[in-house]
Amino acid sequence: MLLSVEPDGDVPIYQQLRDQIVVAVAAGELAAGDSLPTTRQLAADLGINMHTVNKAYDLLRAEGLVRLGRRTGAVVVRGPGDGAPGAEVVADWERRARTLLAEAFAKGMPPPEVVERCRALLDEFSGR
Amino acid sequence: MQSSSSLPVVVPILLIGGLTLLTPMLTPRTVRFGVRVPAERLGEPALAEALRRYRAGVVAVTAVAVLIALFVATSTAAWLAGVAVEVAGTFAVYLVARAHVAAAKHEGRWFEGLKQVTVADTALRTSPEPFPWAWSLPAVLVVAATAVFGAVRYPDMPDRLVTHYDASGHPTSYADKSFGSAFALVAVQIAITALIVVLTRVTVRGKANLDVQDPHAAERQRRFVAIMSRCLLLFAAATALTLAVTALTTWDVIGSTGWTPVLLLAPVAIATVGLVVVVVRVGQGGSRLPVDAAAAAAAAGNEVAGAAAGNSAPGTVNRDDDRFWKAGVVYFNRDDPAVWVQKRFGVGWTVNFARPAALAFLVGIVVLAIVIPLLLR
């Protein structure tokens, strides 16, 4: 898969990496057991600091999406089909979804349209 | 007499001149004379003007260097003066072209409003091209054959071994026969072969600097690595062969005059020409490789990922990384953990001078270059 970062962009680089990997797992482009490059390799190919890649991998590990090995880099440990998440994960996700939905609602997006757009995005991931 | 003895002197100058003339065509299209440019600006008149002046400059410098080598100086001094003028002159011409492009880019604000990204293909790392170890066999066989032949021949070798020849192949210095003096060249053979194999192995795994504006960049990188590693391993065999012929003259198996100097240089000369031909066809990072329909179809299957990663989005260009390339040729980036990076203006690899490992390697090479001639003395 292709990973691209905007080093001088507004979003922190580690966040850009983390977000793309999460999307790839959701879309099934990365499945459980798939490897990601080692920290050094990915940092070198992108021309960015190793700590930045470490930080992204660490976030993904904390979220339970990857396992980290000293030499193997990061290995994806779960995908959409590997059971429901824990209550804590759901609560955390809901808090952030709330902010995102509030943005849409505050700026006058009609709720049916918000729901419709959310469904379209979800269908993209599940390939429907 | 003058012209026949000067002819080989002119060859390296013409070779450097020819390669320098070709170099702008061998680099990825979004790097022009060491300056990063957006693909959308490739039609800018400043780029065509810089190329025109560069070509005229290189031709003029090469003409002067050839004249110096042929008529001004004599013997070894002629060779050195001519080559020095060629190398320094063409680099000056490059710097002028680079300044021309950089000024146009700066004045025209070519990067304004564009999204600058760098891209990595994880597959290049998680399922890399296998290293073609089998292609190092010719070099290993040449070294082994030389060592075995030397061991068999040792009792019949003369008591004094020639250690140095003049330019026409006549012996100028000798050493008493010993294990050390007889097998010094085999040791050099082993060291150089090992160095080329190890360097090939580490450089091809180096940073993959993919062109964001080229949908086939990863495919090109793969084929570039596969082709270059094979060529460099064959080059190692040619170097070993040249050293084997040198050893044969030292061991008094073949004479040192007549055709021997030709035979001696032939393997490396042929391999160099072969390498140049391949490099011109492949281009830096595989930038000149034709991307066939099958590869294009495979890349199209990856289109969703490309779009999601912003790979093909309009207004998305390569990061302006000029600040990390001093004079457009010396890479210095403290953030980048890469030690080996592809050259910016040329084909092959250079190092990230901000990495201590890279500096240690360079010091090691300089030490080797000093120690090996001392060992052979």
From TrEMBL, chain A:
Pfam family of the protein (one): GntR
Protein species of origin: Catenulispora yoronensis
Protein name, entry field: GntR family transcriptional regulator
Domain HTH gntR-type positions: 11-79
Top-level taxon of origin: Bacteria
Record InterPro entries: Tscrpt_reg_HTH_GntR, WH-like_DNA-bd_sf, WH_DNA-bd_sf
Claim: Ribosomal protein is one of the keywords in the record: no
Keywords recorded for this protein, A-Z: DNA-binding, Transcription, Transcription regulation
Coiled-coil region(s): none
CDD domains according to UniProt: WHTH_GntR
